[in-house]
Amino acid sequence: MSTANSAAGDAGPDTDDAIRAMLLLMPRLVGRAKRTQPPAELRSLAPRHLSMLSYLLFDGPMTVNELAARLAVAPTTVSLMVSDLSRAGVLERTEDDADRRRKIVSIAEARLPAIRDWLARGADAWRTALDPLTPGQRQTVIDTLLAYEKAVTEPTPDPER
């Protein structure tokens, strides 16, 4: 079972060979990611916290609504996560100077080094993988992973698959 390359003369595997390679690779990647333990002081964190902490680390403090939009979840879900992490001393909530009704969420200063170190391992690995690529190739990697995520979360139209 072989699918032709998308453009004549492209070097690399055909679609079916690429699928095989990814089906073999993804469980290893997921397994390694699951074994990457947070530092001892962050052991109470769950995988669902990783994306929120990444946004706060890379993009800086933001409101619950901004976090919810980026995470594609309801603001109430983010609010509950922020409350849990605030009680654990991982996050801080401060008043927005421009609108005292809004709260700005940030990583607690005392936890910032541990979170930075924890997330740096993954960031460094991605940098190693993505640095040799052109900007267009990097965008293709991102687009492909997003398309895969979308495809696995949608029901398949063919029940025979």
What does this protein look like?
This protein is mainly α. It has a domain at about 40-155: Arc Repressor Mutant, subunit A, CATH 1.10.10. It contains six helices and three strands. The chain has helices spanning about 15-35, 45-60, 65-70, 75-85, 110-130, 135-155; strands at about 60-65, 90-95, 105. A three-stranded antiparallel β-sheet has the order 1-3-2. The chain is globular, with a radius of gyration of 20 Å. Mean pLDDT is about 85; it is low at about 1-5.
The protein's oligomeric status is single chain
Helix content: 55-70%
The CATH superfamily name of the domain at 42-153 is: Winged helix-like DNA-binding domain superfamily/Winged helix DNA-binding domain
Name the beta content range. Answer: 5-15%
H/E element order: HHEHHEEHH
Distance between the termini: 15 Å
Say what the CATH topology of the domain at 42-153 is.
Answer: Arc Repressor Mutant, subunit A
- DSSP E strands, number: 3
Globular, elongated, flat, extended or rod-shaped: what is the shape?
globular
Cα-atom radius of gyration: 20 Å
What's the CATH architecture of the domain at 42-153? Orthogonal Bundle
> In CATH's first tier, which class of the domain at 42-153 applies?
Mainly Alpha
| Residue windows where pLDDT falls under 50 for at least 5 positions | 1-6
The major sheet is characterized as:
3 strands, antiparallel
**Structure annotation, total helices:** 6
Q: What is the arithmetic mean of pLDDT?
A: 87
